[in-house]
Design a protein that fits this description.
two-stranded antiparallel ribbon; mainly alpha; 2 strands
């Protein structure tokens, strides 16, 4: 059975633990396991089916029953709180703690992948290097980004992009893109994208006061829709994004980096 620190869902771990015990003991059942931890068998089944969560009082009991100790025990406790978290703040807090508890090797890779999405300027610099000839002049690179960032953050950005294999240094000391994509697990991806969206939405609000009107296009519209047609609008937005990406890829002489946010959300219930 896999280590608990390879899981991002505690109920998957508990189900795998049950299946492993079942293979070595044909008499092992939901009733037996439930009796050992003081839980009704039907409730335990609903937990395995992800229809229920365990109560806080069962965390330590299940930790001991599964034989988890030290770092693994800490991971399981954190994992339960992570899966039960409601607010974006708590979800990210527990996720980052899980990455720390995973261990140095796993932490280094997954933390870097996650970190890429947490600051808007990582993506901006990556896109900028598609046409900007950068060769260790971090001060100029920092000023090239809008709004400008510190020289230290410019250095950190290049180091992270190199670590992720998204850029490479050429013989002439300039950098170029590798066209490699960041691959993360589903859980990491959803949390990271949320962090990136929050970052760029803040930038969009600041752009109203930072840039001249002719340099931006920020418009809003409030519309009426039926529930059944929301998916139609989402399809139209998706098609527009696809066409826009094709247009950008066909650009032969880029000299600017732009961020486009498209937001559709309900204002009534």
């Amino acid at each position: 059975m896999k280590s608990v620190r390879e899981y991002f869902e505690y109920r998957d771990y508990l189900k795998d633990f049950f299946e492993t015990k079942k293979k070595t003991n044909h008499y092992f059942s939901y009733r037996v396991m439930g009796g050992k931890v003081g839980m009704d068998a039907s409730h335990l089944l609903k937990i395995f089916q992800k229809k229920r969560h365990i109560g806080t009082g069962y965390i330590e009991t299940l930790t001991e029953y599964c034989g988890l100790k030290d770092r693994d025990a800490q991971y399981f406790h954190t994992l339960v709180h992570f899966n039960k978290a409601k607010s974006d703040r708590d979800i990210r807090m527990y996720y980052e703690k899980l990455l720390e508890l995973k261990g140095v090797k796993a932490y280094a890779l997954e933390k870097s992948q996650y970190e890429f999405y947490t600051k808007w300027y990582y993506s901006a610099i990556l896109t900028l290097l598609d046409f900007y000839k950068f060769s260790d002049d971090y001060k100029s690179l920092a000023q090239k980004v809008n709004p400008p960032i510190s020289e230290a953050n410019a250095r950190k950005s290049i180091a992270l992009l190199e670590k992720l294999g998204l850029i490479r240094k050429n013989p002439d000391n300039t950098y170029s893109l590798t066209r490699k994509l960041i691959t993360t697990g589903d859980q990491c991806h959803s949390i990271a994208v949320l962090a990136f969206q929050e970052e760029t939405i803040k930038l969009a609000a600041e752009a109203l006061h930072r840039h001249a009107p002719e340099k931006i296009d920020i418009s809003t519209v409030t519309i009426t829709l039926s529930h059944k047609n929301v998916s139609v609008i989402n399809g139209m937005i998706k098609q527009f994004r696809t066409e826009l990406l094709k247009y950008a890829e066909a650009e032969t002489n880029p000299d600017l980096v732009y961020q486009l946010n498209i937001q559709l959300f309900p204002m009534s219930v």
